[in-house]
Amino acid sequence: MRKRRLKRLILWLALIALAWFALDALVGWWYRRGPAVQVTATPAQIERGRYLVAAADCAACHTADGGAPFAGGVPLASPFGVIHGTNITPDAETGIGRYSADDFFHTITRGEARDGHQLYPAMPYVSYKTIRREDSDAIYAYLMTRPAVKQANLANGVGFPFNIRTGIHAWNLLFAGAQARPASQGESPAWKHGEYLVETLGHCGECHSPRGWLGQVDRSRPLAGNDTLGRVAAPDITPQGLAQRGWDRDALQAYLARGLAAHAVASDEMLKVVNLSTSRLEPDDIGAIATYLLGDRPPAPKALAAAAASGDGTPAQSRYFALCAGCHGRDGQGVPHVAPALRGNTSVRDPNPHNLIVAILDGLPEHDLPGLERMQEMPGFADQLSDAQVAELSQWLRVRYGGQSAQVSGAQVKGLRESGGKH
What count of other Cβ atoms lies within 10 Å of the Cβ of residue 166? Predict the structure, then answer.
């Protein structure tokens, strides 16, 4: 009797699952039918949309290197596998050509496509849920007036059970409604405008905030840094974290506008953000972002002590002279248009040595910055230095040029060497 009941239960569950998938397929087929939407928009709305697309950094995820604008194909790393940016050109078959303005707003604020297909939270709908409707409509108008590109979306590399999209509904119930807590304090018009640019349009917390074990943004520690999403860590950009590394409002504005400040050069994903987004914003908007990040009453930048003499004559110093001084200068002063200064460098001053270790192991590509500025390629030294030697060099640089005394261990280097998958 029990076996018969169990068989019936299994049969019913199988039938329900089959009916669910059939219904899902039918709904998807229905919504994929129909003609492409014809959009009517004013030149002013389209121009506003162009600007907002830059502010929202859409190209970074939806324009592949060497690919057509907004046609998708960008691989986005996540702890659950690779997710690819989708085609958001007005192609009716592979893009958003059948989307209405209402469909588009629903998708970017709820994470649900026109056909009911649930998007992965790599699409920052949790941040975009507070976007103004008029801004969504302007972005839509701009995208729908771009050239349509027929390019199928790439398959994602997300493994079981995270490839079961229905599970995202449960994720949304748990996390999508969470409200962002301001990362700084302020009430001025510039601060409030900056909050919208940072927390909603720029969705900076998607990279710069810690995440929980299910990939949710930790709303209790906004912008406090994250070293789990990619090879290069997104640093702490809270007012305290920025001040600890010597940032002030002028330096932040220069960095966002040009990718270059006295003690920092934009690299990796942040270089894309500068080139595709922040460098294209008006000075008032860049100023508002800097105001929000530091707060209306920014903490004073921490002064950097004189270069420590400890470690002189050690193997680490000898390695610096042999491998680094040719570009960064004998005393870390840097060379304009070639290599940044190391004294006071934001990565050297960071309490987390992650990015400094990665730079020594992997090197850095040539940096093409806004305007005519660039920095030359830096070679990696993973093949020349052992884990212990990289740790010693990192330690020496942090003490001498960054005012950091915390020990860098060979185990930290080993972990980053192995996770890089390059050596």
Answer: 10
